[in-house]
């Protein structure tokens, strides 16, 4: 099967990291295609970046419809555009936040998320609430590092995650740690060993969820919410998103 | 004061309807500027349309920053891009869904929303939950008419709203009706008279909320969630959304 | 338009402070009438005071019906008697707690309340829950000062608010501060400047909400919950509250 | 032990009915004193009546402090003034709504409330939410009969309760019925026999709860929320409620 | 009346302690029979123990049906098997957690639970949520002592409860303390005196609730959820739990 | 990898059906071992059956620890004993209810459950709430057929599911259907074709989730909640569940 992993930001170094993470856990017969959109922000650290990354994500989904894609993964922890993506394809589309939370829920009763800048906290609180995970999430821990800092200085990144991860276990009494950013997969295994609790990276969780769903031949429901969008005109730069 | 009302879709006939509604309730010293973005969908009836309307909304906010705008209104009932919009300006930004719900809460204990196509229901349920209004909203009633149908055939539109509005009062025991689409302002007064309960149009509610907040000199908080976005590169069609 | 601001306690010095706050933000064509009831407690710091302030509030509303009042404000942060007040008039009635929370929600994603004595905390928690604001309110911070202490010793009051406000920003990461008592309006602007986040006083927020609603000609819904009370006999001191 | 049952309305016929219900279940060594306040409404069917009944309730609690009362019951289904009552005494104070819901929760997984006029529904929804019983209560069923109608025409009252009770069992699949008004105790046993599910009258539930708590020597907590009210001046008709 | 108190663990010393607590508060005409099951764990400190204690509890309920029992109490703070127990008898069955929380709710607005090992916290959080008490419970405080430690070394146990109880009052601002284990009844009175807030032991609370319900002649509802189990075959060690 | 599927009831015909369902979706390199416990009920249709099935489930988990099992599935829709099972192994343990709900959440915004007897409804409502899925589940639809009826008369079973499934789509507007019983896997595909929405069987969903988690090498967290149970004595029939 072919899984298209969309890194909603346009930093291809990060896309490569994500691709490596995805490939490292895929089954032999799974093909991973990891891409960044051709438009949008270099990283996502605000609602502004989040929403402006979505056109690129949707374009990649639409392209995927002619590329024989069996499932899509949106590889950014806010799951940007997830519900819209489900409208434009009948293939399953999986967000890394939801994948990580559902997987964590099958391994641990309570957990904490460790993520990037403090400003992202409100967005993740809403994500957690929308997935019904409010009673499971003990804390959303932020760091002073932005998304690309983890890419640029992985040693400092690891140290930061170690620090907050340890505090999650010791202060929150967290039973698992969720890495709240797509580029952190590299750190998961080392961190897990150090902290002694499951450390879940959303990208790898999502790859396995995608394989699971595709194996079953399940498709996105086209009844009510995720019906294909109504045909209509789009104008300006977004003309190509419309349909006649 | 100058209030910029952004109709997130690109149908200028609807923008004119919205503008008229806004002007009809503004104070003498308030200037209303109603616009549609230069890019995006002709109407919004799915998560797809919703998200793809946001770049246009954000562009209009950014333009507004050099136009002496005192407050912005996002005139589509899903409040598309509201949180991102708050990041790019320190002027207040008000969504018509939130404005209508807060105003309704000061006039009625329980209410129902009447809106367009059934597929929009999940989106509005999430909006209601995010605003903490779940205990107040009795029902979200949909119609078989899409957004532009109300524009094209106002007589059928009025009849449909009358029908669902009446059922809201009789079956839900609704104490007020919220019109769940920006283009419905014209119908509000007649409907209110007929049904005998407050009928709230979001656009006019938002105009008054904007005047209220600007009068007080209050600005969007720039602490944590709504800080200005981090400077970063954007590519492709969205290059202009980046900052150096 | 004429707005009657009812300070539910009987301390006229405080009523004057509240009146000044209201006048300072009213529009030119708005008339503010601020009163204390002729019966009831000198201040409200318990459920006991809260409930015993309500007869006076309702009497003032009833008087208002012959005074050409267009909207009422209940100026005590527990919004005492708000729902009953809505039953006895078809004019809008606005509580300062609801007004401040709705306004804050349009300016900040998360906020904290700073109020008087610790015993008031449970009451405000219930108010917050009833308005669906539980996910927005980070903390309800109390002080060792009672209501009238702020009146008597404004310098100490300001210092106390400054202290708790600063802790709200630094410890709760609050994006706005709500002043949880009607007599604190004087402190709002200075505090806002100092803390760098919006500081919302409920009285001024309520005045602007009232103007907004009256401008639109909206009335309290008389369907179901806020119907006029059934006619019936009242006895004892409260005989005048009955109807034949 | 001496239990003072306060019927918050001033209709002594109803107080006698309540007293009979209380006496019919009390233990031999329990003394029941049932009273109506000397001030207030003849019946309670709105927030207006609810709040205006509270001064009378509080006066009766205060009188009780010199009458050797061991526990108080507030016998109206909205539990009017319950939290204030707990402030003015260290004896336990029990509301009939809470007593009936807690007792029902020990006998049935899900239940419905049958009560008087439709307008009361919002009030009872808030009561249910404040007691954390939202997941247990299937429906709040109203009737076209007001409080005193049940007193005046018990045959019609019984028929109405039978009808709504039956629909609660058949349509809601209710496992118990709660009688949402103090004057309905007489109907409970017959109804229970007819419907085949527990029918809980709040007055008798509260009497037994009161005996239970007094037996244990438990008192209302005087830490934080229910501390005695601060000493302060009251004026007008309510002067006697103040303290010097 | 005859109340059968079932200590779900098989440590008879603890059953004796529980029996003493029950007897110390029972009414003269109440007979207390306290038992441990003939099968199951010596103590309950995990979901594993919890579930494996249930067959013994159910066996004791079934035996009770021929022993003239009027009400049952399940004396372990997780209320193990409570809903199943309600299926096999029409007598009331009361859990000590629910009894203590309902009683506490009539005496204090907010409270904390003090219990045994940290691992039990998730279980109690679920119990609290299922009873709708999430808004009342400030904290679930654990200790490093296991269930039987309190039995073996009551002096250390008392010291531990004193410590955590004091922190509950001082740090959580708790208005009452709930003892989250059946064997702690002995400590309640001393602790209450020391801390100055109600300290509620579930066993004594449950005895009084049972007396209250039996006095009223109320039975467990046999409609829907708590119907007698369907007749069916059981095999292996549990053959005797089946019916032909 | 080896997945042990535990049918908590002792009806081996049903276990074979479940095994077939599991085998039909497993990957080539996955080994499925499906068992019924040696003790317990022939079917599960009450809390009584639910709890009495758990000892058998736990015994099978314990046996599995020496059988080289990589993951366990509990194949009954109430997920009986799931949390206890997680305590006794470090291998992942997956319930079919949670697996089906998490999978459905990635394919459909809102869904309904179709299950067996009405009495099971409360249990499933609690399961849904504990998994945070209350906002997604539109309805829990019951049938007059018990668990084994579906085994004995599959034609009637299919008809019943078709009927309720259709009503779920038409009346609830459900976007997916969850089969609320382990023995219904056979019906899923036909039903899905007929209804045009995803029909999710928990057993097959759980098999794929198990493969996903085992692929990643993730284990149940042994921090706090799911630590191995404390060593202790068990007596009677359950002696073998203890440890020295």
Automatic annotation (TrEMBL), chains A, B, C, D, E, F:
Question: Which top class of enzyme applies to this chain?
Answer: isomerase
Q: Which reaction does it catalyse?
A: a D-5-monosubstituted hydantoin = a L-5-monosubstituted hydantoin; D-5-benzylhydantoin = L-5-benzylhydantoin
Q: Which InterPro entries match?
A: Asp/Glu/hydantoin_racemase, Hydantoin_racemase-like, Iso_Racemase_Enz_sf
What are its E.C. numbers?
Answer: 5.1.99.5
Q: Name one GO molecular function term.
A: hydantoin racemase activity
Q: Which Gene3D superfamilies does the record match to this protein?
A: 3.40.50.12500
Superkingdom classification of source:
Bacteria
Q: Which family does it belong to?
A: Belongs to the HyuE racemase family.
Name of the protein described by the UniProt record: Hydantoin racemase
Origin organism is Halalkalibacter wakoensis JCM 9140
Q: What is the lineage of its organism?
A: Bacteria, Bacillati, Bacillota, Bacilli, Bacillales
